[in-house]
């Protein structure tokens, strides 16, 4: 665990915990408890990445970009797992189907292909969130003074 902390500035439990901050939106959205475009949904979308950035600004890991890409990748796994576990509920019991020439495939094969596409999409989305938040964190680390070393800040922070 020390190697993880040395490389990413946080131990594995903290990295997983940061990623888990974004997981409730997956569940709430798939259960149709929050809807796109609402203020509450926006909170669930933006507050977790802001927390990720705040943690990086506070801790100043050696590689802030890589740290948040890793957090995003862990979130991606939560996202993919959540969508798979809530698949039937999120679709309201409707069985999705492919169109065109693929419509002739066995429904089980179609579902397998659609689930695989959902996993790939979830993984890409989570990693992209990590990349974007990592880029913002790197920029902010350059302009926001480090609270631990800035002599203009009062002692203790």
Topology record:
Blueprint: H1 2-8, H2 12-20, H3 23-30, H4 39-59, H5 64-85, H6 87-90, H7 107-143
Helix pairs in contact: 2-5, 3-5, 4-7, 5-7
What report would you give on this structure?
The chain has 157 residues and is mainly alpha-helical. It has one domain. Helix content is 69%, strand content 0%. The chain has helices at 2-8, 12-20, 23-30, 39-59, 64-85, 87-90, 107-143. Helix 2 crosses helix 5 (64-85), helix 4 crosses helix 7 (107-143) and helix 5 (64-85) runs antiparallel to helix 7 (107-143). The longest helix is centred in the C-terminal third of the chain and has 37 residues, at 107-143. It is elongated. The protein starts with a helix and ends in a 14-residue tail after the last helix. The model has no long low-confidence stretch (mean pLDDT 89).
- Number of beta strands: 0
Shape: elongated
Number of helices: 7
In terms of DSSP E residues, the strand content is under 5%
In the predicted model, the low-confidence regions spanning at least 5 consecutive residues are none
Largest sheet: none
Number of domains: 1
Overall helicity: 55-70%
Order of helices and strands: HHHHHHH
Distance between the termini: 27 Å
The chain-level structural class is mainly alpha
